[in-house]
Amino acid sequence: MQLISQNSVSIQNHRSNNPIAIPSDGYYISKSLGSKSDSYSFTIDYPNGYYYARLHNLSDTPKDRAGIVLLSPNEASDRTPPVVALDEAQRIPVYTTKTIDLKDVITELSNYSISIDSDISTDGDGDGIADNDFGNGDGASISSDFNLTLGAFDAPGTREMLLRVVDAYGSETKIPLSVEIYTPIPHITHATFEGALTGALDEAVEGEPVHIFRFRSPEQPVFVSPDASMTDVEGVFTRTAQSTSPETITLTASGQTFTLSPYGAIQNLPAELTSSVIPATASKPMTFQVVRRSDSSLVYEQTLTLPESAKIIDTSQNPDTGSGLLVTTAGQYRSIFAELSDPNIPNGMYITDDSSNPILALAKDGNIYTLDDEVTLSLASEDDYIKIIATKDGQEIATFVYKIDFYYTK
Description:
Elements: E1 2-5, E2 8-13, E3 18-22, E4 52-56, E5 65-70, E6 83-84, E7 89-93, E8 97-101, E9 106-107, E10 112-117, E11 140-142, E12 147-151, E13 157-167, E14 172-182, E15 186-191, E16 197-201, E17 209-210, E18 213-214, E19 222-223, E20 229-230, E21 236-239, E22 249-253, E23 256-260, E24 266-267, E25 273-278, E26 287-292, E27 298-302, E28 312-314, E29 324-329, E30 334-337, E31 349-352, E32 358-362, E33 368-370, E34 375-382, E35 385-392, E36 395-403
């Protein structure tokens, strides 16, 4: 054994007559094997590593030496790259992050380093090679304790990456990663007529912004609110009532001014304007219109939809009306509730004449259909609520009072 420096020694290899250096972080020990024998066995109480053994006869001729025997692969023999058991396909919701503990998926006895090229489609360092820009970049980072964090990404798509693991002896493993950035699907589970709603994503993802849109044909989708609702840890989002109508709304159109009551009724029309009700059809909802008397040009138009919780109430059977859509028939005309199985207006109501022929149909959502060409509808108000009057041959046959707290949307 030869002392090379204060921190390292070497052992002479008598076969090659060359010294074998013991690394500065190595540890040199001697162990007695006892009497001379054809075979020897002993254990070394050290963890997995790299060990050298040299036999030296201490009692007989000093020249009787054995060569260097390798008990475990040395540095020069370690050509096995690290084993990385990581799925190449990764999925992550947009706007979120995903953390993977790489220590759980890497098998390697020696020390190792990890790096990642977060986008192999771009040449980050300008050397003409796109897939060698290893280092923390946009969309992926590796912490000092070997946690890989993917995201956050602000748009759906696919990001191709390359993960590299290099052991202490230069052997490396590269794992291509295809990261799919996707959008969880939101669903509205409950809504109130005041505009409050609750919903949830199709998976539990926290911190996803959810925007509420209104779709109304033939308009383009419109933001209900400019602010997003953020999901909680269970992927649930809520929106409080934003569009209640506690006050009268004043409208000015074509130089004419009129009002909308807090409950949806059109009121205070000037003499130059008049209102009308266009019954619902199979393709269009019932419409309230304000037109100019002189040329019938349209000034204002309004539709309505009842909340699912609204009730249709026959006042002849239930005088204590409360709130809901109050239906009152006159003379020989009668109201009949439709069955849930009705193909046209399930859970709605029919108005019949004295021969039990249906002449009006009232759908559960509040739309009125005329089934007799001689029946007309007109618009009025009652205690600031919308009131529709149905007549035939100048005789009132039924009234419909929408005793419901409506809220307006544009």
